[in-house]
Structure formats: structure tokens, C-alpha cells
Design goal:
Layout (H helix, E strand, L loop, with lengths): L8 H5 L3 E3 L2 E6 L2 E4 L19 H4 L11 H16 L1 H34 L8 H36 L2 H15 L12 H12 L8 H21 L4 H15 L8 H6 L5 H6 L2 H7 L9 H10 L1 H7 L8 H5 L9 H4 L4 H11 L4 H16 L7 H15 L1
Antiparallel strand pairs: 1-2, 2-3
Helix pairs in contact: 3-4, 3-6, 3-7, 4-5, 6-8, 6-9, 7-8, 9-18, 13-14, 17-18, 18-19
Length: 396
Amino acid sequence: MDGVEPVLYPLLRKDLVVQGPRYAIQIGEKIIDYNEEFRLFLSTRNPNPFIPPDASSIVTEVNFTTTGSGLRGQLLALTIQHEKPNLEEQKTKLLQQEEDKKIQLAKLEESLLETLATSQGNILENKDLIESLNQTKASSALIQESLAESHRLQSSLDQERDAYLPLAESASKMYFIISDLSKINNMYRFSLAAFLRLFQRALQSEQDSSNTEERIKLLIDALKHTVYEYVCRCLFKADQLMFALHFVRGMHPELFQENEWETFTGVIIGDTIRKSDSQRSARDQIPSWIEQERAWAVATLKTSLPGLYQTLCLEDEGLWHTFSQSSVCEQEFPSTIVKRISLFQQVLVVQAVRPDRLQSAMALFACKTLGKFIFHQGASTQQLNTVVILVIHFIL
């Protein structure tokens, strides 16, 4: 449900009617017996349900939505339990000891106040009271020192735990990436429990390394491979290429410069050109070798990404002759240009000039980026080829 029905207000307010030995409540036009152990739970999939002001005071709202920081902490705890269980045990013991010390300190303060309140006569002449105060002060100082030492040890342990934080952050990012798929199709819903099983499976993979930093990189690559393969098997074929690009975009935003993704998805559609120039003037702005029906797309690319357009040197028809005539143009970029633009910028050029090869260009971009990042940089050629074959199998 997305709200609180007014008919439930008497029940939520507990407007009980006493009828002899029993309690009753009016729901609508009926009076129903009320059990004191009755509890009502209302649930909704809406993360921001509307609760009227008159109902907010009688309803307790509990948000079970998974957050990035909460999931990151949970994944970090799972990682530490698997990689360094002794570290997690020490952390737990320190927290328990710290709580015990705080309880002892609170009891000493309470005892001190009670002693002062019950003392009779001149406090300065009461030797037992003064001795008790001195003992309390000494015990309090020892507890404070123990708490300070506990904080120091916790800081040291936290530094060791934070070494595994990049793995937890990457895993948390992956979960929200696959959660976004439900916006495309309601069938694409992945539970947190299923993702945690994938995460634990990646932790148990054989990724031996004496260096902690190297070990984390290997675990991140193993998790990417596991999650990507698992999700692709659940998707319709028409959505597999979309997920490949979405996965690359979510995990590696550094591959996309400003306004590039917006231009690709159509968020930036060249409103400036539309308002100031006609279709004929757009035709005049681009080289003559580009087909007329692509004039608007290339003009939009020029306006949205002027730096990229200048780098392409599209005015040089001889430079782009092979590209314009090739049946696999995504693989036939001019050698002088391909060194100066990124992989995704190549996709943008194909989208603007040769949209007939856009799907192949997108698949090639996904294969290259996923093959580069799913395995570590030192992976063998055979491993990389295996990933490329896997990606092509899932995408095309």
C-alpha cells in the first residue's frame, strides 16, 4: 500500500470501547472485538510513501531500504571475517571491553553521588568519605586510561580494516547497478541475499597474493566477472547490450568525459541549434562527404562536444574515406585519430555518422572495456580472449 486509509485511524489510535469484560473497536460501520496482543504492519515498495500529518503521529515508520553506506559496512564486515577473522574478533572484544568500562565508570559516578548525598556532618572531617572519594577518583582515572588505550587500538584496527574498503565500495556499487535494472523491466529484480551469495563466492575464489592491495584487486576482478555472468544469464537478449554499457558506465565513470554519456543517451539534443539554425544551416556546418540525413546528428555532436569535433578533423575527406565506405567502420578509424580519442568517443562518432554500425560499435566497446577490467592488468591473452568471447556470447 502507498498510504494509510482513514478507516484504520480508530484502530491506530486505539479508540477502544469497553463492553463489560471485553474491549471493542469500531472499524467503519462494524464494532469488532479487540485483542491486546494485536499488531498491525503495513508494508510498501514505495521508498517515499506519503503519510498524512494526522497519521504520522500514530504510525511508526521503519525504512528497510538498503543504503550505500549500510551495504558497504555489511560487505566490509563479511570481507574481514573471511580474510582476517582474528581482526574482527579483536574489534568485537575491544568494543565489549569499552562498553564494560563505560558501565563501570557510570556506576562509580552514581556511587559517588549517592555517597555524597547520604553523608552526614562535616564532609572534610569524614575520613571514610574522603578515602572513598580518593578510591573512586583513582578507579575513574584507570578506567579513563583504559578507554583511551582502547580508542588507540581501535584506530589501529580500523586502519587495517580500511585496507579492504575499496572491495566493499566496488561491491556496493555493483549491487545498486543491478538494482537499477528493475527500472527497465520489472522482472529484473535481484535480492540482496542473492548478491551476498555472489560476494561470498568471489571471496572464496582462489586469488592467492601475498600483497593485500594486489589481493583486493584480484577479488574485485573476480566479483565483476561473477556478477556480470550471473546477471547476463537472467536478461532477455534485447537487454544484454544495454546492461553491458550500464555496467561499464556504473563501475568505470572515468571512461566517460563530461556530456559524452548525455549526448549518447539523447539527454543533450542540441536545443541551441534547433532554436537558432534551420536544417539547411545545419547542413552547411558539416563536411560534404557526410550524408544529408546525418547532418543534424553531426551538428548536434559539434555543439555538444566541440573539443571532440575539433579533434576528429572531419573536414579532411581523404582521412575518413575508408571509414565512410567500410562495412566494419567501427574497426576502421583513421590511425591518426584513433590514438587521440577514447573508446567511447569512437562510439559517439559511429552514432553520429554511421548509425547502421552502432550496435556493433557498442558491443566492441563493451568487449574491450569489460575484457580489460574483469581480469587484472597482468592477465594472460588467453584469459582476455575468454572474456571477450563470453561478452560477445551474452551481448549478440
